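Researcher: Going back to the complex we discussed earlier. I've cleaned up the inputs and rechecked each line, so this should be the final set. Can you rerun the prediction on the complete assembly and write out the structure?
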Amino acid sequence: MATTRPASQNEGTVRVRSFVAPGLLSAAIAIFAILLGLPGLAGGLAQDWFDLGSRAFGAWALIAALAIWGGAGAARKVEGRSWAGAVGSGLLAGLAHALVMAAVTWGLGSLIEAGADIRHWLVQLTPDAIGLLTLGRAAWQAALVLGLSLLCASFAGTMLSYASRRYTWREHISGWLQRLGDRLAESPPAQLLGKARWARSALLVIGLVILLAAPPFLGRYWSNTLGTVGIYVMLGLGLNVVVGMAGLLDLGYAAFFAIGGYTVALLTAPQPYGIELDFWVVLPIGIVLAAAAGVLLGIPVLRMRGDYLAIVTLGFGEIIRLLLKSDALTPYTGGPQGVLAVGGPSVFGYDLTSQMSFLYFIILGIILVAFITTRIRSSRVGRAWMAMREDEDVAEAMGIHTLKYKLLAFAVGAAFAGLGGVIYASRNKYAGPEDFNLLVSVNVLCLVIIGGMGSIPGVVMGAIVLKGLPEVLRELDDYRMLAFGALLIVMMILRPEGLWPSKRIRMELSGASEPPEVPDSASEGRP
Amino acid sequence: MSDNPTQSRPKRSFSPARLVRPIIGVVVVAFVAWRLWGVVYVEGAYGPETWARFAISGLILGGVYAVVALGYTLVYGILFMINFAHGDVMMLGAFAGYFTLEALDGSGLLNRSVGWSLASIVIAFLVGMGIGLVAAVLLERLAYRPLRNAPRLVPLISAIGASLFLENAAQLVFGTARHAYANPDIMQRSAGWTLMVGGQEVLLTYTGALTFVLSIVLMGGLYLLVKRTKMGKAMRAVAEDKETAALMGIDVNQVIARAFAISGALAGAAGVMWGLHIGIIYHYVGFIPGIKAFTAAVLGGIGNVPGAMLGGLTLGMLEALGPAALGLPYQLKDVVAFSILVLVLIFRPTGLLGEVLTEKKM
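Model: Rerun complete. Updated structure for the full complex:
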């Protein structure tokens, strides 16, 4: 703050800037959204869901929503309780936003009118996508209409946001939600679940029965989709042991998945070796090989900490994939084409290779993996892992042989990945190098982190959100990885413990020191 | 922490885990010696001109890796965090240079005269560096600064998220097609000086020479900046101890933002070099060079500016000469690079020139 300038004038410029900035920021985000093709996506979704006549409604709604958000941002900068200030700030933010957006619309519209092929450089800016903004009118008309509507939208955003602050609507609503939540938590079913063990077990059993009864009624598409989600749940549970419980960041997890997959592929397929062993023989081999690879990789690298470990495992995963893919090893691994006609399981001569039977297989695998994980977690080993995750030096000082427990974590995680890989390759009847690329590792890591590190229901939830939703919403497929990336950053900033964190991590992050009601529940749970 | 803790420890019982490092070492050395013997003495597969070609391409690539590695090392030295999205900042710089050259080409300025051609290249570099700078500063502001005091894993995951976001945003905005850089006519990728090595012609392209010279200039400039200027002094102070630096009146946030700005500008320059020299860019172009530059930074000793230069050039040479010297197919050059990364981290995690990091920094 320069002292030579009159204070009032200085204040004035600062305030104007603080009102214009949210408008410009939201305009920049809107331009980015247009470059990404989001208006077209929103338009398509809105058209499907609400049976609208045109995609333009959804597209305009998205852009207007951004304008409203920008206006609301300006309202937060208003000092005092004057409506005049709110109106002024709303007009300033709205003008800034609308001018930029109108200029962009005019520019894009006239480029299209001139017949320029923008799509050659910026692929989302097709004449069709720009038509959604201009509604097929001349560029200057479209710019005028869009600018005026966005000015109104942004102004409305400011007014609404200011009014909600002025009349404390927000406090009313959040208080009401709070009371609703409290009442739900006090309701008899919730109390029962919170206190009584048998009620929780009963719920689990009911869930299992539904899960096991459902597959025959699902049909091919849903069996396939749920199977994919299930395999990712299995992988997530495995990585959860490594990252969530032991705190070792592994970015090469797909390598173990690949080892499982390629084991079953090479040992059961007619090409390239022609060994054609039975699936049930290969299954344990695959799991053991993956676990052995985990130990072999682990011994040299586990002395490193944190981010070094992440990079080494990433390098290892890439080495495995590049080797599998290379032409030099094609006679041994099938090369870039992968291995075809991978064998599937059969019992007493019955072929069990339908999507439905694989779904059962996957569900059984998940139950097994989840059971092992819960048992390990509450054992001495699990406590050692968690101690190591919190502070390696202290854990070592307490007499925990950290290298041994790290290796164990690596081996367990790798074994689960091996199981997942065997089922995956056998289900697809194919194993190829690109099935096991870095994206798989990153996907699994994302679902563990977004679900909640160290938590089993969190992993299931993460897998459903990250693998299930995009399968169902096919339109969103192109935007899935983009959303993951943004979600990872946002989660790390707002909710690093994940959607459904484990009790222990939640406690650590909320700073509560007392243990959960262990002594009480034992006595009060029984009637 | 400076004395060796293993000496005071009581003798442990024999553990097979201790044998692993020596075994890996012997196996690697034996493999390399066997392949070298086979390729160089027994087969004599390549003449001197081929080795010269490999060495030239290795030096040029090494220069690019070194420039990217400087960005990693600068950020790591100050924040102890791997900026996973650094390679993607390079990709953004490459695209910025691409659009600049396309625009200049479209307006006919690119090949109007020799002066215009040279000016176009300068403009492309400036735009690429500017975009890289802005991207890196925004990245720091939005994805890393809110996590400054979080546990180590948290900013790393955020960085992975940023990398995914940038790659996929670029894929959506620019498409999956591969774009060819519009080099000016005097700087075509096939044009250059012809050197005579062992009676054979070896081509040193103009773009390669430009890339190498520019990378040396950038490295030297950064070295002087860190060692000789007040800003560099502030950076070193913050790298040493953030709290004390703040007490000495250094604006820590500003210093970190500047470190990101410099690393982003370097990555942007590397992106334009990549485009001019290699010629093909796409949304994923930053990933492999990013990982390799990180390898280079680790090889030289992460956090160490001369180390990053040395590591970059070494890695480039090893990657270019390695597959040929070991008699492996050229397709496996990335395997060679990643193996070097794994081996360096196993045997000498502090790198060639690295200081012995204290536990806190590791």
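Model: Worth noting: Residues 1-7, 511-527 of chain A have pLDDT under 50 and may be disordered.
Researcher: Good, that matches what I expected from the previous run.
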